[in-house]
Design a protein that fits this description.
mainly alpha, globular, single chain, 0% strand, 140 residues
Length: 140
């Protein structure tokens, strides 16, 4: 069964993919430009091996950019991205941060619409236009 999209649906999906790619591109760029600062932020949150984790985060974000721009492996990477941004919300802006700075609650809450968009992308895929149909090996 062929999945047909109207023009407005195709345009909306492409715009959404570009927005998500841009968000992750900005995040990755800031990490790559100053990996030490990112590692310091991770260390301040109490995580071990902060430089290693900073590189892992930057690489994941770069992979998400590539996925949203090409459509390749979009479902699994969007699922991973949803878990990632939810984790970031709790780890860096969670309830333990709210007493010291109420703006942290807003930062915490901003991660959930982002995660919802990633879950929606994971379920619906990259659309029919400008989308490589790459999937995990062995999957139909």
């Amino acid at each position: 069964m062929e999945n047909t999209q109207s023009t407005w649906q195709t345009v909306a999906i492409l715009i959404a993919r570009l927005i998500l790619a841009a968000m992750f591109a900005m995040a990755a760029a800031f990490k790559f430009m100053d990996m030490g600062a990112t590692a310091g932020y991770i260390a301040a949150a109490g995580f071990p091996s902060p430089l290693f984790l900073a590189w892992c985060a930057a690489i994941l974000e770069a992979l998400l950019v590539i996925s949203f721009l090409t459509g390749a492996y979009l479902t699994p990477l969007a699922l991973i991205g949803a878990v990632y941004v939810t984790f970031l919300g709790f780890a860096f802006h969670g309830p333990s941060h709210w007493a010291g700075n109420q703006a942290e609650f807003g930062a915490f809450m901003s991660h959930f619409p982002f995660a919802a968009g990633l879950l929606y992308a994971a379920v619906h895929g990259p659309g029919n236009v400008l989308a490589l149909r790459q999937r995990w090996p062995g999957r139909v």
